[in-house]
Design goal:
30% of the residues lie in helices and 35% in strands. It has 292 residues and is α+β, with helices and mostly antiparallel strands. Helix 2 packs parallel to helix 3 and helix 5 crosses helix 6. The longest helix has 18 residues.
Length: 292
């Protein structure tokens, strides 16, 4: 975090009468490890300062710490990242609003929210991890892969640059998606699962999703031509794609996605693998207490 933003945040926290330890990290999984240790050291709240990727690491770290200690520790967020997709499911939470965030933290109100659990089997790794906002499999995950290469861009340009690159680098693969009430097996652009409503900076993949209903929302998009994709893209920014004949929407507490061809997977804007063969997604109802 830039020194100026850090000073603004510290001022807002002190003005709200909060005692705090502010710890920075600049390495992958650094926030995960810090959050896990904070649970073990009896902190009463753990606050993620950043975007969806930072929140993802903090939530995974808190869940790991809770498993070890048996303590539930509330998680809060000060949203200042690139995407800030998760907060679009929260009323009154705005990016870069340090005063509002400090007020929420000082007030200490919490609500139990759901978390998505994923089991990934791929060519190079088998793992279990969690997501708080969304999971992409296929072209939407490829957008994240491509965005990670665009170090010379910032803000929304990162996502749009990633989309442009993914249009040319990704080819729809035969995939099978199974959940309660659906069994889709054909060439798909992507299968996206949302706990929150928005992914990729401005795309409302699952516009009706609720973070505390005990269910995950599913958006499955069949293969389509490039001109048709370009026509459909603006609909995603408004959540108006759900009626398209190439789109299947569903809700479930368990989803399985598989393919004979390796496909990319990304959670909360972070690449998990580029070579998944099978992904099992389940919901963990009320697994995290969110400072609200």
């Amino acid at each position: 975090m830039a020194a100026r933003r850090l000073a603004e945040l510290e001022h807002a926290l002190r003005a709200a009468g909060l005692a705090f330890d502010l710890v920075e990290t600049d390495k992958r999984l650094g926030a995960h490890l810090l959050a896990e240790r904070a649970v073990e050291h009896d902190y009463t709240q753990i606050i993620a300062v950043g975007g969806d990727g930072t929140l993802n690491e903090v939530v995974n770290g808190v869940l790991a710490g809770q498993t070890q200690s048996g303590r539930r520790v509330p998680v809060g967020i000060v949203p200042i990242g690139t995407g800030n997709d998760f907060i679009k499911a929260l009323d009154g939470v705005k990016p870069n609003d340090f005063t509002g965030a400090a007020t929420r933290i000082a007030r200490g109100h919490t609500r139990a929210i759901d978390i998505g659990r994923i089991e990934v089997e791929s060519e190079d790794v088998s793992l279990v991890c969690y997501f708080v906002n969304g999971l992409g499999m296929g072209m939407d995950a490829q957008v994240t892969v491509e965005s990670d290469k665009l170090h010379y861009l910032s803000g929304p340009l990162v996502y749009y640059g990633g989309i442009a690159a993914a249009f040319f680098s990704y080819r729809a693969k035969p995939m099978r998606v199974r959940a309660e009430g659906i069994d889709v097996e054909q060439r798909l652009l992507f299968a996206s699962i949302g706990n929150g409503r928005c992914q990729g900076g401005s795309f409302y993949m699952t516009p009706q999703a609720t973070i505390d209903d005990g269910l995950l929302d599913i958006c499955i998009v069949e293969n389509m031509s490039l001109p048709r994709m370009l026509t459909a893209l603006p609909l995603l920014t408004r959540g108006e794609h759900t009626a398209l004949p190439q789109v299947t929407m569903a809700r479930a507490d368990r989803v399985e996605v598989s393919s004979a061809w390796p496909f990319p997977v990304a959670t909360d804007g972070e690449v998990v693998t580029t070579s998944a063969r099978r992904v099992i997604v389940t919901v963990e109802p009320g697994a995290i207490d969110l400072v609200s």
